[in-house]
Design a protein that fits this description.
The complex is a heterodimer.
Chain A: H1 2-15, E1 19-24, E2 29-32, H2 34-40, H3 48-53, H4 63-70, E3 74-81, E4 87-97, E5 106-113, H5 115-164, H6 167-196, E6 200-205, H7 209-224, E7 227-233, E8 240-242, H8 244-264, E9 271-280, E10 283-290, H9 297-300, H10 320-330, E11 334-340, E12 344-352, E13 360-362
Parallel strand pairs in A: 7-9
Antiparallel strand pairs in A: 1-2, 1-5, 3-4, 4-5, 6-8, 6-13, 9-10, 10-12, 11-12
Helix pairs in contact in A: 5-6, 7-8, 8-10
Chain B: E1 9-13, H1 17-29, E2 33-37, H2 40-50, E3 54-57, H3 66-75, E4 84-88, H4 99-106, E5 115-118, H5 123-134
Classes of the chains: A alpha+beta, B alpha/beta.
Chain lengths: 373, 135
């Protein structure tokens, strides 16, 4: 056992597959293990921000500073550059080296390179994006086929009406032609809006602000339809970098769908739609719960795909949830749902704080934007 | 079709009003009586009430979908004898217009539909199929 202890004491620091350094209160590296020096070059006596990030001054929002202050252990994902200047992603774990008396003199920083994981994540997102494009194209074709059939119907009515000198039929046919030309124009417009996207305006804002706005917008509509629209907001959620208008669009889409699900439900009962917001373990959670018609298995498989709509031609193009999904992805989050046919549905948006975009204007991209800098 | 015989009845299950109107005109012109149902539930009700001789069926509809309607009809001892002609814009992988027909063919205990027409339809072919099924 003594041999083992000796080995651990003398070699472990240099042998672990993790980059480790110890910094003092001036953020100077006073000790670094072999792995650290291999990764970042000779580091002792240099400032940590210079070594990790090539900066001349301390990072804004420095986690080490906070740990020096409160002694708490922190983990976070960071981006920097290795000794060759290649961009790297690493997960750093910061812990105080405490002494029995007085303030913390040193911190230990242990970082693991997660560049490969990040690259795989990005590739996966890209693959998903391409799949979504394919589905969207198939969805457009589906939507257009119905319009096309309406147009053919209109032509058939006009042609046979002329043959039979049936004015009523000609009028009906003409009406069908007009309706479907209008529909296809609307369709194209909405699709282009979706494809083009808009510049995301990300600013640090109150996550509850879009919730309040949605409540204001829909309370009248819900009351009119005899649906109880309620809200359950956790009031003390800290501000977060969000594209507020986009999050508002997401919540408005979900609440609008929930109200429709109640309206379309055949059974007689008291309908309730509840919008809630809260933060759990650094993740913002928005939820929309309804007790409307719910979805059967077949429909649940298609919810986020294509121009899929169950609402009939006058109610939707099926773009709402696709747009919502896109916005949630732009915020580094995810959207999920559960549904019970005849009982209702719950849609949930989860936005982990560490995946949220940086404040500022982001160029619109034709599909889910990647925020890697 | 001769007028001396009573016209056969066709139930059109279709949520798109213009598509329903088109099929209605087409089938009326072909000498058939028509009834329109706007979704699967409505379709099942009208099927029981009106006892049509044939059904044209859309697949993607609000409330009860066409697939459910089809399975219900084909699982019913009495109703399963009524021929069902599917008229749909649903496609399979790679945009295969007959993908949905293949999907139905893979289901257990579900027979193939008597007719299958991808939208937009070939109206001559649809009428010919209906004539053949109701001859």
């Amino acid at each position: 056992m003594k041999d083992i202890d000796t080995w651990l004491q003398t070699h472990l620091f240099d042998e672990v597959p993790v980059s480790i350094c110890v910094i003092d209160r001036d953020f100077r590296i006073v000790k670094a293990n072999r792995r650290f020096n291999n990764e970042y070059g000779a580091a002792t006596n240099r400032q940590c921000y210079e070594v990790y990030k090539g900066r001349e001054t301390r990072c804004e929002n420095c986690a080490a500073l906070r740990t020096f202050e409160d002694g708490r252990i922190r983990s976070r994902q960071e981006q920097g550059a290795d000794r060759n200047g290649s961009q790297s992603h690493y997960l750093v774990h910061i812990a105080p080296i405490t002494r029995s008396e007085g303030e913390i003199q040193y911190l230990i920083e242990m970082s693991t390179d997660i560049t490969l994981v990040k690259r795989l994540e990005q590739e996966k997102r890209e693959a998903e994006r391409l799949a979504a494009v394919g589905e969207t194209v198939a969805g457009i074709a589906h939507g257009i086929k119905n319009v096309l059939m309406g147009l053919e119907g209109g032509m058939y009515a006009v042609n046979t009406g002329i043959e039979r000198e049936d004015d009523e039929r000609i009028a009906r046919g003409w009406e069908m032609l007009e309706e479907n030309v209008t529909r296809i124009s609307q369709f194209v417009k909405e699709f282009l809006d979706f494809a083009k996207g808009r510049k995301a305006q990300v600013s640090v804002s109150d996550p509850n602000s879009p919730v309040r706005k949605v409540m204001r917008l829909f309370s009248e509509k819900a009351a009119h339809a005899n649906i109880l629209l309620t809200v359950d907001m956790q009031e003390d959620i800290e501000p977060a970098p969000l594209d507020e208008d986009a999050i508002y669009t997401c919540l408005a889409n979900l609440v609008s769908n929930a109200i429709d699900a109640c309206l379309l439900s055949g059974t007689k009962r008291s309908y309730v739609v509840m919008l809630s917001s809260r933060e759990v373990d650094g993740t913002l959670i928005y939820e929309v719960v309804d007790n409307g018609q719910g979805m059967d298995y077949e429909i649940t498989k298609k919810v986020f795909t294509k121009f899929f709509s169950t609402k009939g031609s006058d109610r939707g193009t099926g773009l709402g949830l696709l747009t919502t999904k896109k916005i949630v992805h732009q915020h580094g989050g995810r959207i999920s749902f559960t549904s019970q046919e005849g009982e209702g549905s719950t849609f949930r948006i989860e936005l982990p704080r560490d995946g949220l975009p940086e404040p500022g204007t982001l160029e619109a991209a034709p599909s889910p934007i990647h925020y890697e800098v | 079709m001769s007028d001396s015989r009573q016209a056969k009845k066709i139930l059109i299950v279709e949520d798109e009003p213009d598509v329903a109107s088109y099929l209605e005109m087409l089938l009326n012109d072909g000498g058939y009586e028509t009834i329109i149902a706007v979704n699967g539930n409505d379709g099942l009700e009208k099927l029981e009430q009106k006892k049509p001789d044939l059904v044209t069926l859309d697949i993607t509809m609000p409330e009860s979908s066409g697939t459910r309607f089809y399975k219900t009809v084909k699982a019913d001892a009495e109703l399963s004898a009524i021929p069902v002609v599917i008229v749909t814009a649903v496609t399979g992988y790679g945009g295969d217009p007959y993908g949905y027909k293949k999907f139905l063919g893979q289901l257990k205990n579900v027979p193939e539909p008597e007719g299958f027409f991808p939208k937009p339809i070939d109206r001559e072919a649809l009428l010919a199929k209906v004539d053949e099924l109701l001859a």
